[in-house]
Input
Amino acid sequence: MNGGHCGAPDAGSPVLTSCSPQKMCSWMLSCCLALQHLAVQVSLLCIFHLLLLPTLPEEPSHAQATSELLARSLFACGISTVLQTTLGSRLPLVQIPSFEYLVPAMVLSSHLSLSASVDRNGTAMASTCPAPHCAVAGSRAASLQEVSGAVLVSGLVQLALGVSGVCGWAARHCGPMVLAPSLSIIGLSAYKEAAFFCSTNWGVALLLMLLAVTFSQHLGSCRLPFCAWPQAQGDSAEMSVPTLRMFSVLFPFAGVCIVCAILSHLHIPWESLDLAVAQLSWANNTFHAPWLHIPYAGEWGWPLLTPRALAVGIAMAIGCSMNSVGCYVLCGRLLRAPRLPPHACNRGLCMEGLGSLLAGLLGTPGGTAASIGNACTTGLTQTGSRPSVQVSALVCVVLGMSPRLAGLLTRIPLAVHGGVLCVTYAVAVGTGISYFQYADIDSGRNIFIVGFAMFMALLVPRWLGAAPAHLATGWVPLDLLFLSLLMVPVFLTGFLSFFLENTVSGTLEERGLLSNLALRKAGASDRHPCGERSEASQVYGLPAGLRKLLPSSCKAFPCCFLCPWSEEEEKEEEEDSCAPEEGTAAPGEGTHLLPKPVSGEQQLARRLSEMEMPTWHAVT
Output
């Protein structure tokens, strides 16, 4: 991963040229990349349901309902992915129920089932009964309906955040000192869950990780002569590509699953399940699920909108919105795309809100959010293709209409899920750390902000998981709201780092907000920023057919936050951003949320408002 490298790639990165978001890969290559995205997406979906289902009231003979539940999640995620890549941020991002949905859902389901809550890993509250069929209050269907109601509320809140422009405003005020700890904690927050699933068989998990590291790093430049693909649509010239690196997740995933299947067929014991892990396993997978069943709203009952669901839904929306903004930035950096414009961020959140609304109406326990694992797969394999993500979305929709096929996905070994988490989320940690190069990490101010935010993000969920009764306001919905927010490390890190970064005074160079410093460290000082907007319109712009239907100037609410700027506004902004610098005086101190102590910084602040984050140029 090239960290902050901008500009044209070297000879060792041809895949970024052939598979960048604005260029069309061959359909055959897109299908292969789609299969890789699907493997990671299915693994993360299985992890979500495996951790959530034990917290729901146990009912006999619910295996068929489990496969149908997974099928409904696949259906909602597929439609949401199509919306995201077509009308949303336009980045090649897969949609799944993220961990920021898992934690509040487990908090609510644990409260509904009246069972003991145990913090398993500091990021997810897993509540298990002492026996497989312990008696609990409430029914499974009623609990699912209330959790689905929370998902429905989260979709409405996400729509409100996107339409109002709050998401884009917050993204513009996230400098390196906010992005670095937030992205790092996103990756670190899954390490105990990864270890939990890997513990079923460390040999299988380590084999997958060894193969992934070997293919992506040691053999990353290895080109197979028999694997040649057309470079672009309509181009007959073929080229050899680093196949092992491109499929450094798919090949290990498939190979390890085949090895496990052979061992199971030969009746060789290879999976060690203790009581806790056995309760996470799918309960007696059945093949009696229908081959074809199109899900529809209200089939399992309409979502229950209670005060508890309202509180948990708000927590879901806040946590997932922060996760999605981080994922947008992460994906753009890994693809070396231009910086994320506010209108693309707002549209992306709106599409996720629509996907969560659909998921809630279908009765699924999780909404849709940008998949960190799939975005990290893009960086690990150095391939980013919007058509491949759209193909994987269509496959998800097909699988969602076949509970029998969705049930087959539950046969994937648990250790494989743990290996996928280890390989993918490690990229998020490294990407977050790479943002420190733009700030003065030796500054006492920055050291405190990073250390305090990350330490509290690990400490508070641990304490609340061990003793959730300590948080008692006297009103259950308010307790669930605070508990759902404070149990999410991403929320704590993002909130604390954002607040401290924008209120504690510090020089612009110290905070990593000087555009010339960022460009110099990125190695792109030869690139002029005035051409960035045209590149951004190619990556984040709406489809050409839809742009023709939009008015020439979208200044009315809410289009002003969702549409790109008009050509006149764009030209004026380019002239401002291309204006020559008047001097190199010390910038003094300043923050975004407090008044500037130096009155002569208006022009510098205006220039930095366009360059708050490092510029990642699209590869052409």
Notes: The chain has 28 helices and six strands. Strands lie at 95-96, 118-119, 125-126, 228-230, 238-240, 369-370. The radius of gyration is 24 Å. The chain has a mean pLDDT of 77.
